[in-house]
Amino acid sequence: MDQSPFQMFQPEDEAPCCGPSPPPPSAPHERPGYEVCSFVDCFVESGAGPVPKVFTKLGWLDIGGLLRARVGVMRSESRIAPGLYCTGKPDDASPVLVTANYKLSFDSLRRKLSSVDAWLLVLDTRGVNVWCAAAHKTFGTDELISRLKKTGVENVVGHRKLILPQLGAPGVDAQQVMKASGFEVVWGPVRAGDLPGFLENRGQADEAMRRVTFNLAERLVLSPVELSLALKPSLIILAVMLVISGIGPGFFSLAAAWSRWQLFVPAFLAGLFSGAVLTPALLPWLPFRSFYLKGLFAAFPAVAFFLRQHNNLSWPELLALVLVCLTISSYGAMNFTGATPFVSPSGVEKEMRHAIPVQLIMSLTALTLWLVIPFILF
Q1: Is 21 exposed, middle or buried (0-12, 13-18, 19+ CB in 10 A)?
Q2: pTM score, two decimals?
Q3: Is the pLDDT score of 25 beyond 50?
Q4: Which residues contact residue 111 at a Cβ distance below 8 angstroms, ignoring those fewer than 6 apart?
């Protein structure tokens, strides 16, 4: 077996994390001094050796990891060891379901299999979800063929069928997999929740199972991680702008820095909120096809409110702040191009070629105005 369901070193006097007693020392998967992963229930014997059986209900550690990943904390560590796992009491006729070693993808699959006896073949996608990994070919033909050989799946099941998620199709050549391994690729539904019905229907998917959705909940679940990823660069930008805001005819004024910075911060944060929250929330109703233009439009309410609240400012100051809000919103909205079913990878590259020059011009114009305003107005 090539998977390794073991975690950090644990002293001998501490109980194992997954509840059941660990396998006897003579078992081939025993690793002295290590504990079994929290999502592993026990081990099932198979034609290829012991296979970890996983819980289909998420534990507190799983839920904590999910929440951390959703806000972008330790997201790169949200992965499991690739290899063969199982749910229920699988036998040689049970289906083989293929997924990625991104922990959230793995958890999303197993929690829908409470009534299913199945083998789970986990590919090494470098901790990336199926859809994105397929675009980069890590959820791909070569990895699938290699993982089949390493895990010895042909010795575990009597059939020769693999059920892959539909969103993994861009990365896998089904004909090449059949030629190299003898396994037929069957494309499963888009969502893991439809798998039980798909299996009960003997591998036949209805139209709803094939349809990719992007509803309000699916869009807004992306906002926390976008805001989290923006935190560090935002703090750097705000710190730099605090210094720049104090530059004036007298070289530097702390009072001016604080006063002007209090105007800049709301404009910046309004742009961040418009791009990372309002844009995905209002996505179907925002005009334009390009996301960076959607982001510009989503910032208009914030701009209108800002202009009304600060109509006493000079036009250069207002223009600079409006451009800051629009630029940040546009850039934040553009980050969603790779996380939606609306565009292709080539479409993302095309949009970036158009958007980045526009955003650079707006940001440089805003910065120039912010620098020269103290010298022309005071």
Answers
A1: exposed
A2: 0.78
A3: no
A4: 56, 57, 58, 192
